[in-house]
Amino acid sequence: MADISLTGYLVLGVLSVNDASAYELVEQFSKGIGEVWRRADRNLYDVPKRLTQRGLLTARQETSVGRRKRTVYSITPAGREALKAWIGTDIQPAAMEFEGLVRLLFADQGGVDELRATLATVAEQARERRDLFISHAEYILATAGGSQPERAHVFAFANRYMIDHFSLMSDWAEWVLGSIRDWPDTVTALVSDRERTRRIFRDNALPASARPVEPLPVAALRTEATTPEGELRQALLRAASAHIPLVSAHLMIADAIPPDSMRRSARLAHRAEAFAHQWCALLESPGMDPACVVELIDAETTLSSSDGRRISGVEDICAWFAATATAVAQAAHSITAFHAEERDPGRVHVTLEFAWQGLAEAGQAMRARTRHEWTLQEGPGRLPVLRRFRVEILEPFAPASVEQVLASLRSVWAS
């Protein structure tokens, strides 16, 4: 079916393993597919509807008291046939969208400091993405296959490509930074570096294995990512990126336990822990749409914040959530204690403690410890719903050295 977009086939591919809502599809795409096909999320909520109209998907409504309806999609036999047929067609040439490279092409219209800042950012962002895919590999190893174990054998190759891709991007940005270390501006090098420019083009025409290795001055390569603050930012990002895979892992374990079995308490505990990781993932993603929190709350949810305020109502809770998520530049919550107990049928009381580490907008490292008490209500949704929320400050939010915060993160990882 030539008129199905690549995004449509991506949706069919994800749904060929598990049913999912549009929100869950967005979550799946955030785990790595979005790095391969970034245009996928531009109309991701509309694509399943169009595929349903064509008979490639079916849609069913799921709802519970006090919550909005959600549409869950399933692939049909016709959808599987369309996906299989597409896999056998010719592929289009690879395309690239790289704003940093575009800015380099027109760097002669700006200042050299702006060019260096662009390259430093490219290097840092590439390392962050590389570390994200390294964390994906670690998660798949730790969980014997990850959230889609039936695809681990092909995911391994894609994971290697993404790690090597972002490693190359980081190395390239550092090489350019070292090469322009003596430029007074972005124009005069056209004349002063003429011979060097010719040599680079000459080397470019050689096979990669035949190019001479050009040593770079270490001082010229010290971008923000190699500073203590940059190391902390990467460590926080890596810690934050671990939550979404853990959501899938706990749900997968819970789904393997029958609801009416003798291990019901273990099933509810895994679902509660999946909720906790989803909550943290949203709080630690400044670019996340706060509206995503509506999956976790409903009209009966009440929050008691550490400053004594009581917040209720979906709109007010979303506003509180957005303010909390954007209060710092980057943060990570590590669960250091967790206990879940079903006190009434379908109602689970959760007590958990967090070690919180963060980096303020001004670059100040911060840390704190909190204890939370949650009441979760089970229902037909992917996750339970938060009914009551109370937080207690065990150690107040306070400035700390970068070394102290990094040590705290390493301590949590080691345990």
From TrEMBL:
<dbReference type="InterPro" id="IPR036388">
    <property type="entry name" value="WH-like_DNA-bd_sf"/>
</dbReference>
<dbReference type="Pfam" id="PF03551">
    <property type="entry name" value="PadR"/>
</dbReference>
<dbReference type="InterPro" id="IPR005149">
    <property type="entry name" value="Tscrpt_reg_PadR_N"/>
</dbReference>
<dbReference type="InterPro" id="IPR032710">
    <property type="entry name" value="NTF2-like_dom_sf"/>
</dbReference>
<protein>
    <submittedName>
        <fullName>PadR family transcriptional regulator</fullName>
    </submittedName>
</protein>
<dbReference type="InterPro" id="IPR036390">
    <property type="entry name" value="WH_DNA-bd_sf"/>
</dbReference>
<feature type="domain" description="Transcription regulator PadR N-terminal">
    <location>
        <begin position="11"/>
        <end position="84"/>
    </location>
</feature>
